[in-house]
Task: inverse folding
């Protein structure tokens, strides 16, 4: 697990260039995607690269980490809408090649099956201030796969910034499990801003998986880069 501290703008430039290289090397690449504020500047850079004809998404396949339970697909806060608004509708990706989990029990088992058939080449992650990755909240077991969870009160509080009222934030979500994330060939996590300082400090000190900080599982993966900006990395 390599922690790389650099200026925010440089982080996104470096990761976007890396995605360009990897997609050009393998146009059928399988990407694991995240939502939230951390990936947005990356998606903007990927859109620019598409517009400049540096990236072609026509054969790229994507799997999203998670989705709220109880929001209609077209609700502006659903992760389905987020992906369309922030990436998919701006590039030439085939929407049939984009997958986002949903709470339907049949859909959960399909998603598990699809992830078995399509190993993720690069999994993109953010990190919650409580150490969650995807929506694997503290206490999640190592061998978890796609499942429904109750969001922690802290996560509901953190995510209320996207909603008009905290009571509108869903209390449940569907998420890839820790095992699904660890199955990716390579993982890139982005942590930006002061709010991530404490969790990055703890992650930096960890030597093994600690159930109370789900992201510590990444210390057991052979190919993980954690990009932190100067604020998120101030305590390391
Ligand atoms: C989103 C996800 C979450 C976020 C995390 C950080 O798909 O899985 O784990 O990555 O909550 O969110 P931001 O980037 O908004 O700080």
Result:
């Amino acid at each position: 697990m390599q922690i790389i501290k650099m200026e925010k703008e440089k982080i996104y430039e470096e990761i976007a260039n890396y995605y360009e290289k990897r997609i050009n090397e393998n146009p059928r690449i399988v990407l694991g995607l995240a939502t939230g504020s951390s990936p947005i500047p990356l998606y903007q850079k990927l859109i620019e690269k598409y517009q400049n004809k540096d990236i072609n998404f026509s054969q790229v396949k994507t799997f999203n980490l998670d989705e709220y339970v109880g929001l209609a697909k077209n609700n502006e806060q659903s992760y389905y809408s987020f992906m369309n608004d922030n990436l998919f509708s701006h590039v030439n990706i085939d929407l049939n090649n984009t997958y986002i989990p949903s709470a339907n029990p049949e859909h959960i088992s399909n998603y598990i099956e699809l992830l078995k058939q399509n190993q993720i080449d690069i999994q993109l992650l953010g990190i919650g201030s409580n150490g969650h990755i995807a929506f694997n909240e503290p206490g999640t077991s190592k061998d978890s796969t796609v499942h429904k969870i109750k969001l922690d009160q802290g996560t509901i509080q953190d995510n209320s910034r996207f909603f008009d009222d905290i009571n509108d934030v869903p209390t449940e979500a569907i998420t890839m499990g820790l095992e699904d994330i660890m199955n990716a060939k390579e993982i890139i996590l982005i942590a930006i801003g002061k709010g991530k300082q404490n969790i990055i400090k703890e992650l930096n000190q960890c030597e093994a998986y600690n159930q109370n900080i789900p992201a510590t599982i990444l210390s057991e993966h052979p190919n993980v880069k954690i990009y932190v900006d100067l604020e998120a990395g101030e305590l390391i």
Notes: The mean pLDDT is 96. The first strand starts at residue 2 and ends at 5. The longest helix spans residues 8-25. The chain is about 30% helix and 15% strand.
